[in-house]
Amino acid sequence: MSQLKDHDTSGLSDFGYKQSLSTGSIGKFASFAAGVSYISILTSVFQLFYFGYGTGGPAYWWTWVGVFVGQLMVALVFAELAGRYPVAGAVYNWAKQLASKTTSWMAGWLMLIASIVTIGAVALSLQITMPQIWQGFQMVGDGTGPYDFAVNGVLLATILIAFTTLVNAFGVKLTAAINSIGVFVELFAAVFLVLALAWHAVRGPEVVFNTQGLGQGQPLGYFGVFLIAAMASGYAMYGFDTAGSLGEETKNPKKTAPRAIIRAVTASFVLGGAVLLAALLAAPNLSDPKLGEADGGLQYIVLSVLGGPFGKAFLVCVVVAITVCALAVHAAAIRMMFAMARDNNLPFSRQLAKVHPVRKTPTTAAITTGVLAIIPLLINIGQPAIFTILSSIGIVLIYLAYLLVTAPMLRNRFLKKWPLPDDGAGTGFSLGKKRGFIVNLTAVVWGAAMTVNLIWPRPEIYNSVPPFEWYFLWGGVMFVGFVVLVGLLLYRLRIRHHTGVLEEHSAPAQGSAGADEDHELEPVQGSADADEDDQLEPAMI
Fold first, then answer.
1. Cα–Cα distance between 116 and 482 in angstroms, integer?
2. Rounded Cα distance, 503 and 353, in Å
């Protein structure tokens, strides 16, 4: 079985594709910004600080360190793959090179659903910030009604998703420009926020060892609540693969994408951890219950410490961060939908894979993603608990999708089929054999453990507010199980019988390793479970 060879800048022709998206529209900073904005430290730390602090107290800060170490291992594995295959729908196409077609389709399916759910979860976080800037943003009721918070959050989220849909539909250059400006504002604001809070510190860094007596009387003690609080940090540090997913539109992607992935997760850890620490040092009263409430949290600390006008100026920067975060997540979801559609691996693939002839962007996929992101919000409009539930489900699906890449790659390392021999074209990033094995093994163990932790049905995450029903408590397990089952049935019973690169996206036969007379995409040597049923059929005509 032949191995893929990197003949062009991105290796796109080796996948059997011709260039359809805008080439070279994304530079080094824009690639880095894509990963940073998806992670979006200001969005994530302001979004779920109240949950982490309310669950684990000041010592929850250590979950930020733990999650970073685990996700850095995943990022290093992804960087190695991005150095060889910087292709749209990164996780989906990477899994295609490492495992069976069923596995790669499931990786793409889970990532696509997770991204759509995450768009909604990120957009919902406007409700935590905007009414604290100006009460006029609480357009539904006065915020005291049982459903005022949830319904107003859905309204603000819908407006934001409509905006990200329009921008992404217009073209990647506009998306990259807005995203880069937003990330610059976010990084600038984060640095000054750390300095401003540190200036008002009223206690020392030993505060990060303060558990506030939480977990006493419980079977696992503080460790039990620490695991729950880890959801707040786990929600932050993912999406760094976005730089790889934008590879087809990036300049010199094999060198740019791997470095952007590693820099994005590292920079986010440093600045995010500093913001959290500075907030704990400056909080006037660690016993104030507002620190652990959704309408308080980190926003409450900023307003209390820095004062009204100055504090609200920082919250405006948080709104900018939320906006570019939703924009980046939406962009990543579009690339995943497009990547799967051009392989005829989704319902209505021909329509979803259409690229606008002028703007060079999958316009139909952009609109479809936006509409699908709004639907879960409308279905759950009367449930105040949707925020944490959506956040948790999105994280679980992401971690599962990542496992469908890191686990097959570890299997190939065991079988000594990875790393691939250098074919002379060079790669953008390599971990080597010994270091790569340790990193890969750690990434798999971490991903599996965190997935179990996040999907574990606990009321603090899945049923924190009334009504306390069993189906809310088990909602994460049931929804994730439903998504996995539907995905397997959809692919095995229908889609796999029609899969194949669409003719309009198929690379010309001459000079393309992946576009020979039968147009098959062959996995790398030793691909796991690449049986006959899972091979891509000839390009659909």
1. 16
2. 11
Say how far apart CA 106 and CA 111 lie, in whole Å.
8
- Between 520 and 204, the more confident residue is 204
What pLDDT was estimated at residue 380? 63
Cα gap 28→36, rounded to integer Å: 12
Distance CA 302, CA 461 (A): 25
The type of residue at 71 is: Q
Report the CATH number at residue 354.
Answer: 1.20.1740.10
Does some domain include residue 341? yes
- The three-state secondary structure class of 295 is coil
> Tell me, what amino acid is at 170?
F
The verdict on residue 76 lying in a domain is yes
Task: Round to whole Å and give the CA distance between 44 and 186.
Answer: 12
Rounded to a whole number, what is the distance in angstroms from the first to the last CA of the chain? 25
User: Which of 156-165, 174-183, 313-322 has the highest average model confidence (pLDDT)?
Assistant: 156-165
Residue 109 in this model has a pLDDT that exceeds 50: yes
Q: Which domain holds residue 199?
A: 28-420
Phi, psi for 221 (deg, rounded to 5): 60, -145
Cβ count near 174 (within 10 Å): 17
Helix, strand, or coil (residue 197): helix
DSSP string over 474-506: THHHHHHHHHHHHHHHHHHHTGGGT-S-BGGGB
Distance of CA 484 to the CA centre of its chain: 18
Quick check: is 471 in a domain? no
- Contact indicator for 51, 229 with CB cutoff of 8 Å: yes
Contact by Cβ (8 Å): 82, 428: yes
Q: Respond yes or no on whether the N-terminal peptide bond of residue 467 is cis (omega within 30° of 0).
A: yes
Weakest-pLDDT range from 28-37, 66-75, 225-234, 507-516: 507-516
DSSP element (H, E) containing 365: helix 363-379
Task: Report yes or no: 361 and 172 within 8 Å, Cβ to Cβ.
Answer: yes
Q: Helices marked H in 27-60 — which ranges?
A: 28-39, 41-56
User: Do the beta carbons of residue 377 and residue 124 sit within 8 Å?
Assistant: yes
CA dist 313 and 58 (Å) reads 25
Residue 293 belongs to a domain: yes
d(CA 407, CA 262): 20
Answering whether pTM is above 0.90, one says: no
Please indicate whether residue 427 or residue 526 has the higher confidence score (pLDDT). 427
Residues 332 and 146: beta-carbon distance below 8 Å: no
Categorize the per-residue pLDDT at 24 as very low, low, confident or very high, splitting at 50, 70 and 90: low
| CA 90/CA 84 separation, integer angstroms | 11
Handedness of CA 306, 311, 315, 320 (dihedral sign): negative
Distance CA 492, CA 534 (A): 9
| C-alpha closest to that of 444 among 70, 187, 49, 89 | 70
Give me 135's structure tokens: 């009460």
**Distance from C-alpha of 279 to C-alpha of 231, rounded to nearest angstrom:** 19
pLDDT at 390: 67
Token look-up 């948080």 returns 318
User: Total domain count for the chain?
Assistant: 1
pLDDT of residue 383: 63
User: What are 243's two structure tokens?
Assistant: 């730089």
